[in-house]
């Protein structure tokens, strides 16, 4: 099977390792991965901040970049939700991309039909289900089922898991105090689990929570789900 | 008299204070988490919740689409049943109508059932200025009124107060409003409720004029519905000789049968009960039972502006259950006062800017007072897509180009241009990667400072993903 | 006033002008959530009333008078308000002084009355709710509000329905209606429910079967 990787702008610029991990994971599962170089940002930050007109060129670019692909896979629930829920309001062509975009765990579980991806990650992990994946995409148990099948991984319940981490795109900048207070509570909950890794499927949330963890020099690091799933006994992820 | 929201600072500034108030944070956390789990259980009891929610949404959408027809039908039914209907285009007119009605009775005091509409128009303050004392009788409203405070929640206006604070307010303030609190009043909820019972009873028994809102008005029958718990509503609706109800025009529902939906969804969403203790329904006046004069004041006050907005009008479906407040992570941390309106929380963030416009600093900041996490939409019993309306209102605020938004638009335009020109993007990414060692942990400047006050910036990678791809896969 | 009426209506018409017709209301929710069997329904009513702190008793038509007398005595009620049309036999055994609400008792007289005994129009099992419509034996609304103790007689199975959708068609909207689910309560202190505010703090429900 041939799929296009929609790496997302945040992963491209800040978390390339998540993109690399996604490529490695998909290739290991027998998928041929393309990276259409014309892709850029899906336009979600602009759109959610109230700049619809400024979003339109990015929507057009994204739609063009993935023309001809039946499966577009992205390691971001937030960007997948943008395409699926908001692209249709930008016209028929944009709407046509919506059903072809899959968030990574949807692609693995629903399209490839796998939950055990042959991963090995001998760590105590807790999972934060980011809001857009949870509520807009309805990812449900998919990430958990994938994590539970990882050899050596101990999955521990995150208290208040379904509560927003406080990132919210430009919310983090426009309402810094509330955002930080939400992040602090998320971290307190995550630390209470005794986990070594706070796993998520959206790096924008992890940028926020991870940044707070580093600032506090907390004994816990944020890591994208793709990087855990890419890790094997032969080639452990750093 | 309770404080006002006039001249409130923008949401982020008000929230800045609130998140640092440890007691407030603890009170809100305790109360919202208590009700959250209960609501989930009460809703889970009904297998057909999704169908009830969809039906509620459609009933309200139909109502709003034909609002003129239903209001005229309501007017006819209420009038036929012995009531008098008044129309108020705005707050000033509603206040004037009510004041004139009260004065015509010759009374100088009124008892009030908790009503969002009368809070919205500042009726108590207006009556006070006209020499009429308005006594709030809902327990939480009483706490707010005695404490000269502002409401911070739709259902429980004193949610920001814990039992100890309530005890202090009762002990210190009840005496100057009427019967003082019993000696040695403790902070147990049962004793506090008893103190309110004793304090208000004399007011109920002598009251000649009652003022209420309504949860629903049935167009086909002219019936008004008030849903409550304490019995203060029943007192105000039943004992006085004159009853004046001030109700937003969107509170009408077409048919008697429509109540079967909302009487199932409202109690479970608001107080997490199968049914609230008391629901009163009345149609005009009834000989020998209750007030002999009934006036209904239909209030617009910005609702028709909201109705004209095809995305925003869904906010008028709201049945004021406050489930969205109780699940909102932003409300939980910022508190209700930060919203600068009697309508706080997610619903307030979309309702207030539509009712009042976005000219003031606080109103223009409300659409941004959300991380768009969607928890509010998930629990809304009439399926108001609050995140959708928030984004829509952000478009409006950005369009108006107020303070800060012209600069923001320029920055957004610039970022779009870069993101739409991969050559420039790649160059930028390479430059950032090359300079990554030189980046400090805290950055100055708008945006960057707000980020780095609380968080480290990520370590920028040695190369962007597209560079890795070029080297390894092409 | 007339001006504002015209103004508001004109604003509404302008606001929705050209708006599409919303989808028709679908009533595919359930007419009831509880089984139809009368015995099960009565048990559910009993359970839900008790869950919201009403005191529930079972009796037969012959047992009402004795039970009413016992409950009034146990609560120390010396005076009882009586709505017109209340079956005489219900108060046949009590020693409490009867105050017939005819002519109407003043609010102060009601406040000085310990209890009230009424029937009801309908009871809803799923929600533990009793509805009064001011009919014979129920009285006007103030009667069941001001005294601190309310004894309410429900005749089963004929007055018991499963659900809110089944209750509404049995009620006349033109009558003043009071829906009662337990004694008065509040959630206003820390969003936690406590019973006993302005309405009757004690609600005794007598479920009468075998009529």
UniProtKB/TrEMBL annotation, chain A:
Q: Which residues form the Cysteine-rich domain?
A: 3-83, 125-209
Q: What would be an example GO MF term here?
A: oxidoreductase activity
Q: Which domain of life is it from?
A: Bacteria
Cross-referenced InterPro entries, in alphabetical order? Cys_rich_dom (IPR004017)
Give an example GO cellular component term for this record: cytosol
Q: What protein am I looking at?
A: L-lactate dehydrogenase complex protein LldE
The uppermost taxa in this organism's lineage are: Bacteria, Bacillati, Actinomycetota, Actinomycetes, Kitasatosporales
TrEMBL record, chain B:
SUPFAM superfamilies linked: 4Fe-4S ferredoxins, NagB/RpiA/CoA transferase-like
Q: Which keywords accompany this UniProt record? A: 4Fe-4S, Electron transport, Iron, Iron-sulfur, Metal-binding, Repeat, Transport
Q: Which InterPro entries match?
A: 4Fe4S_Fe-S-bd, 4Fe4S_Fe_S_CS, FTHF_cligase-like_sf, Helical_ferredxn, LUD_dom, LutB/LldF, LutB_C, NagB/RpiA_transferase-like
Lactate utilization protein B C-terminal domain location is: 395-472
Q: Which residues form the 4Fe-4S ferredoxin-type domain?
A: 315-384
One biological process term from GO is: lactate metabolic process
One GO MF term, please? 4 iron, 4 sulfur cluster binding
> What Pfam families would the database entry show?
Fer4_8, LUD_dom, LutB_C
Coiled-coil intervals, chain numbering: none
Chain ranges of the LUD domain: 73-285
What protein am I looking at? L-lactate dehydrogenase complex protein LldF
Q: Which organism is it from?
A: Streptomyces nymphaeiformis
UniProtKB/TrEMBL annotation, chain C:
Cite the Pfam families for this sequence.
LUD_dom
Q: State the InterPro entries in the record.
A: FTHF_cligase-like_sf, LUD_dom, NagB/RpiA_transferase-like
Q: Which domain of life is it from?
A: Bacteria
For the LUD domain, which residue ranges apply?
Answer: 109-208
Q: Which SUPFAM superfamilies match?
A: NagB/RpiA/CoA transferase-like
Question: From which residue to which does the signal peptide run?
Answer: none
What protein name does the entry list?
Answer: L-lactate dehydrogenase complex protein LldG
Give the originating organism: Streptomyces nymphaeiformis
